[in-house]
Amino acid sequence: MTQKPIRHYCTYFDSNYLARGLVLHQSLEEHSEGDFRLYVLCLDDRTHEILTSLGKKTIVPIRLGEIEAWDADLLEAKKNRSRVEYYFTLSPILPLYVLEHFDCNLITYLDADLMFFSSPEAIFEELGDRSIFITEHRFPESLKHLEKYGRFNVQCQSFRRDETGLACLRRWREQCLEWCYDRLEDGKFADQKYLDEWASLYGEGLAVSKNPGIGVAPWNVGRYQLIKKNGYFFIDGKCRLVFYHFHGLKRVFWRYYRMGLSVYGAKLDFALAELYKEYAGRLKKFIGVERGGIDVRHGRKMFRIFLGGLKNRDLQFL
Hints:
Blueprint lengths: L6 E7 L4 H14 L4 E7 L2 H10 L4 E5 H7 L2 H6 L4 H7 L3 H9 L4 E5 L3 E3 L4 H7 L4 E5 L15 E9 L2 H16 L5 E2 L2 E2 L8 H5 L3 E3 L17 E4 L2 E4 L3 E2 L2 E3 L4 E4 L2 E3 L11 H17 L12 H13 L3 E3 L1
Parallel strand pairs: 1-2, 1-4, 2-3, 6-10
Antiparallel strand pairs: 4-7, 5-14, 6-7, 8-9, 11-12, 12-13, 15-16, 16-17
Helix pairs in contact: 1-10
């Protein structure tokens, strides 16, 4: 039997997202078919301290200051954008940094709020020998208008350390450093809209996922029939769910969560509720490493989220 290569992944988060990041890592531990490394860009010192203390060889913490020292243009960009916009700016720079500083020929970026439910090898099977892998939003017809924000989602991307992969990352880096804001402007939106041109730029070097089990999220789950059978989740009864993107899920307090599904008109049926319960259960195990409960400074914000959840019937006890 051929041994699987070491898979290299990267993500970024701060201490408010620690539980999510640790659930992502745990799901990689459970479903990876071989050894892997998860390079984590720590957006605050507490995250770096906690991840380092875990002593896991599969987690490689990276301080934000290391990347800012390596790419001096980042600090200039930092002066003219919000925190979330600055985080978006980091999207192409983190995988480029990993490719140039570690023994890694292929890096896969993952959003921190993903959880794998089956083997990540499905990603690499679709990538094949190509240089870049990306996923579409796959909006249903009722949400096609949202494509103005981008046909593709920056949630799961692979880049090979070859001419095409590096050229893509370097071009994207320059674009994000020049303009990366949380608004629509002149055909641009954050770090995401730039991906729309990749098909024409990179042609056969680009793999666009066709696997319906890859990239399932609140904005497209409504177009599928999600079922749970023998402990596994399936899409339309045919293929295994590879990962789900728990975008918009907010813990209000204790085990009450605002789902973020109503924004996209998705209905919480039995299987989807089971999916969210499994994720929330795992979050609970790691929630102690976060600040926990309601931070008094954000109490009013959480109360508004709670009321909004009640109004939209989007609040669940998980």
